[in-house]
Design goal:
Radius of gyration: 24 Å
CATH class of the largest domain: Alpha Beta
Enzyme class: hydrolase
CATH superfamily of the largest domain: Zn peptidases
Keywords: Amino-acid biosynthesis, Arginine biosynthesis, Cobalt, Cytoplasm, Hydrolase, Metal-binding, Zinc
Number of domains: 2
Cofactor: Zn(2+)
Structural class: alpha+beta
CATH topology of the largest domain: Aminopeptidase
Strand content: 15-25%
Pfam families: M20_dimer, Peptidase_M20
Distance between the termini: 26 Å
Strand order of the largest sheet: 1-2-6-3-7-17
Shape: elongated
EC number: 3.5.1.16
Helix content: 25-40%
Oligomer: single chain
Length: about 375
Amino acid sequence: MRTLDILDRLIAFPTVSRQSNLALIDYVRSLLDGAGIASQLVTSTDGTRANLFATIGPRDRGGVILSGHTDVVPVEGQAWTRDPFRLSIADGRAYGRGTTDMKGFVASALATALDAAGRNLQTPLHLAFSYDEEIGCVGVRGLLDHLETASPRPALCLVGEPTGLRIATGHKGKLALRACCTGHAAHSALAPTALNALHIGADFLDVLRREQDRLARTGARDAAYDIPYSTIHAGVMSGGQVLNIVPDHCRIDFEIRNLAGDDPQAILDGIRDGAEGIVAPLRPSFPQAAISIDEVNAYPGLDTANGSAIVTLLRRIAGHDQDTCKVAFGTEAGLFHNRLGIPAAICGPGHMDQGHKPDEFIELDQLAACDALLGRLVDELETGL
C-alpha cells in the first residue's frame, strides 16, 4: 500500500490533542492485521485514546523503533483555504493538518512495515505510535511503562519528527510551570491600602527576564542550536475580575527550555529565590503575600553522541556522511533515552516551519525520500544489525 494512500486515511481522522484517536488506531490496527502484524494497545486512563506498539520480525533481539505521534494541533482560528482534514495534492505538495507534523512519517512507517512483513528480518522492526504528544509528550509515558518490562528491550529508536530528513541528535528539555501570585483585595478607590497581585506578577516577570539574561550571558551553550542557550518564556498572564477591584490573584504560565548542560531544577531554584525576594518585604503588612510555583508538565532533553549506534545506522542508510543537527522543538526521543536507555535520534520528512500553520503541507519529494530511507533500513534489518 502506498504511503500517500495511507496518509489520505490518516489525515481524515481529526485527532486533535485531548480528543479521541481511537478511530485512527483502529484503522492502523486493521491495516497491520491484514499483513499478519500483531499489535498491542496501551490506553489512556479514561479509555478514549491509545498508543499502539507492533513488532515485525524476531522477538528475541532488540531491533529498531520507528516512533511517531498520532495527535495534531487544532485548526480553529486559522485561515485555511482548504479542508484541513482532507488530503489534497497540488504543485508537488500534500496539504492537510498533520501532513508534516507528523502523519507523513507515520504513513511512511506503516507502508514500510507492510513491506517488511513479507521479508525475513533478522533484526526486528518496531512501530510505536502515541497520543497527546503535542501537549507535553503525555501519551507515550504509558507506552514506556509497558516497554520497561519488555525483554529484550528495543535497541535503537528513530523518532520521525520533521527535520527535512537531516539527522538530529538533540533537543532541549522542557519544564512547564504555573506561578500563582497572592495579594490583598480592596475597592480600587482604596488601592494604596491593598496589595495588587498584578503588580506582584509584573515583578515576577522581571525575575524571569533577569534569569533569562543570566542564562544567555553565563549559562551552558551549544552552538548546534539556533538559540544556543537555555530559555525562559512567559506565555500566559491573567488576574483580576473588574476594574474597580484591586486584584488579589494573578496567574502566570511559564516554561524553561534547557540545554543538556543546564539543570532545569537549578534554574527553577534561582527563580524561586527571586520570587521570595519579591514577597518577603511585603509580608509585614500583608502576611498572605505569596508566589507559589507548581510544575505542570516536563520532559527531558536529548543529547545523543554523534558516534552512537543510532546515528551510525542513520548515516549509513542515508547514503552519505551527513552532518548532524539539533532541533529547537521537543520530541519523545528524550523520554525513550531517559526512561529506557535506548539511543535515540530524530529524522523525518518535512520541515517544522510548515507545520502548525494554516494550509500545512509536506513536499511529495520528502515523502518519497523518507520511503527510500526506511526501505534501506529494512534492507539492513533483513541482513541483521
